[in-house]
Amino acid sequence: MADAAMPGALPVLGHLPWLRWRPLEFVERQRALGAVTSFTLRRHPAYLVNDPDLVWRLLTELSGEVGRGRNGDKTRALTGNGLGSSDGDFHRQQRRLIQPVFHRERVESYVPAVREAAEQQASRWTEGEPVDLVRQMLAVAATGVLASLFGVRSPEAMAHEVAAALPTCLDIASRRAFASTRLPSTSGRRYAAALGRLHAVADALGRRVPGGPAEAPSFFLSRLWEAQDLGLPGLDDQQVHDEIMTMLVAGVETVATTVCWTFYLLGRHPDIAVRVEDEIRQAAGDLTELSHLRRVVRESLRLFPPVWLVRRRAAAPLRLGGQKVGAGASVYFSPYGLHRDPRWYTDPERFDPDRWLPGRQRGLPRGAYVPFGAGVHRCVGEAFGVSEVTTILASIGARWRIVPASARVRPKAVVTLRPDRMPVTVHRRP
Ligand code: HEM
């Protein structure tokens, strides 16, 4: 297949307005143009990898040559040099330090806190009440992370801070990355205020309380502190702060968004919702029994992957699928675009959890389903994220039916792919 340049560049800005205003159309259009397509962002050369095998190579074999890069990265602006933005040897060191926090057995111990967060939120609902699901699921996800990862005993007030500040930070960070003009100073002030609130939460979480922890023990924090006491290179107080910010930024919105999209999809597909309800009832709280719900979540992450666009930067010149990529160029791939490719998914726009029944997707290229990325930067919180989403859906779904108030909710592609708005009404199950 010939590799091609994306048409529609403006003189100075290049394709920047596309990414700002029609980002999903932008990535989907390039699919037909070639395995690796090129475009420009303010004269800066950029590439989109549309071929799953090449995406896989990019993330595995080529990860040394195509790293995260340091400049103008919207993640770095939020989380400093935390695990989500570091690279190379330092990233390897930090990954080794943090990974055990997300091992499967440990993740199981986080489930009760997440379940409690979901049940508490829903216990305030009344029959037929309209609910702003996005906001409420952010609060649930934040409560779950604060209680389980950080050992906060009464996380409600802090979770409220995170849920209120996070969307503003992500929205404005993303607008800044793709804005063609300077953003108005009011948005700069809103960004600074929201980011300040998140930093304040991270500071409070990272404070070592003299005379022993006042809260429940946190495996995550104690690992960081122990390593710090042993003198692990680069692990100063700022780095600990950055790792805490990373968990808040990477681990809350992604989960909340996935829960919202899944409720939305179930609301639009009552036949599938009924099967989920039956399964939840029969499983009586045992998450391992929920194989249909897991397929539902998998399919929801296919259609609406929260991380819809990932960027890398070529450290040195390289060839990618016949395309010459110069040093310093940005190389992107889009889970959203890959997940809706009709070459790998029949009827790709259809919500069909059964496509994930064993054996059905045989032959699917590895890079064609990448909601959690791949290779050295693969989501460290994947098992935790999936367990949180499943737990929240199962605990709320056991007692409540969530009915979307509008027939169609449009995805808004900012840092994450989130519902523009998601008004719903909640109805108690008989
Ligand atoms: C449904 C939920 C989630 C989705 C879809 C998701 C998606 C992703 C993706 C695509 C990446 C790779 C980014 C890249 O290649 O640059 C990533 C990385 C990461 N995620 Fe997640 N994530 C989820 C939940 C979580 C949770 C719950 C946490 C932690 C509490 C978390 C923490 C991280 C971190 C720290 C990284 C950086 C890993 C590294 O570079 O070593 N994520 N996530």
Description:
It is a single chain. The chain is 50% helix and 12% strand. It has helices at 16-21, 23-31, 52-59, 74-79, 88-98, 104-123, 133-148, 156-178, 185-206, 219-229, 237-251, 253-268, 270-283, 291-303, 335-339, 382-399, and strands at residues 4-5, 36-41, 44-49, 66-67, 130-132, 310-314, 318-320, 323-325, 330-333, 400-404, 411-413, 417-419, 423-428. The protein has a six-stranded mixed sheet. A three-stranded antiparallel sheet has the order 5-13-10. Helix 9 (185-206) packs across helix 11 and helix 12 (253-268) crosses helix 16 (382-399). The mean pLDDT is 91. Its cofactor is heme. It holds the Pfam family p450. Keywords: Heme, Iron, Metal-binding, Monooxygenase, Oxidoreductase. It comes from Paractinoplanes hotanensis.
Number of helices: 16
The geometry reads as globular
Count of separate structural domains: 2
The total beta strand count reads 13
What would CATH call the architecture of the largest domain? Orthogonal Bundle
**What ions, cofactors and ligands are bound?**
protoporphyrin IX containing FE
- What is the fold-level CATH name, i.e. the topology of the largest domain? Cytochrome p450
Low-confidence stretches: none
- Rg, alpha carbons: 21 Å
Distance between the termini: 56 Å
Largest sheet: number of strands, sense, barrel closure: 6 strands, mixed
Order of strands in the sheet with most strands: 1-2-3-9-6-4
H-E string: EHHEEHEHHHEHHHHHHHHEEEEHHEEEE
Give the C-level CATH assignment of the largest domain.
Mainly Alpha
**CATH homologous superfamily label of the largest domain:** Cytochrome P450
User: What is the helix content?
Assistant: 40-55%
Structural category: alpha+beta
What is the residue-mean pLDDT, rounded to a whole number?
Answer: 91
Beta-strand content: 5-15%
Family: Belongs to the cytochrome P450 family.
Keywords: Heme, Iron, Metal-binding, Monooxygenase, Oxidoreductase
Cofactor: heme
InterPro entries: Cyt_P450, Cyt_P450_CS, Cyt_P450_E_grp-I, Cyt_P450_sf, Cytochrome_P450_monoxygenase
